[in-house]
Amino acid sequence: MDSPFYWIFILAIPVACIAWTVTKEEVFREAREFCVSRSKGCKTLAQRKFFYLFTCEYCFSHYVTILMLIITKYTLLYPDWRGYLIAGFSLVWIANVYMSLYNLIRIDLKKGKIIAEKEQQELDAKG
Q1: Nearest to 16 by CA among 115, 123, 126, 96
Q2: Whole-angstrom Cα distance, residue 61 to residue 12?
């Protein structure tokens, strides 16, 4: 890779995308609802925590990051296990910044849509 600091921002994009999609988007709603019920209803702590991982974007991003590091063999600062450790936590952090920004943008867009719909309803009521 050309520059570790350049690539970390690129590699965080698919981590954020996968973690967000699995834990928040409609396409995985049924699986997520199953995991939510299992995370609350399983008898053992290990089972509850396992299913919880699929409902929390922060938690799930750690596992996506591990997979990404295995696939890309990306390290940061050091070429050995220390580089994987630093890269892993750095990718998780950057991916979660991306997800937070994405969430803020979505909220702003939804707010704008609600305001526009309300204004249209008021115009329709007057006209």
Answers
A1: 96
A2: 10
Q: How many CB atoms lie within 10 A of CB 36?
A: 14
Q: What is the pLDDT of residues 62-84, one digit of tens each?
A: 999 999 999 999 999 899 999 99
**Closest Cα to residue 70, out of 49, 54, 91?**
91
What's the whole-model pTM score? 0.79
Q: Cα dist. 117→110, 120, 126 in Å?
A: 10, 5, 14
Q: Which amino acid is at 10?
A: I
The token pair that represents 59 in the structure block: 């938690």
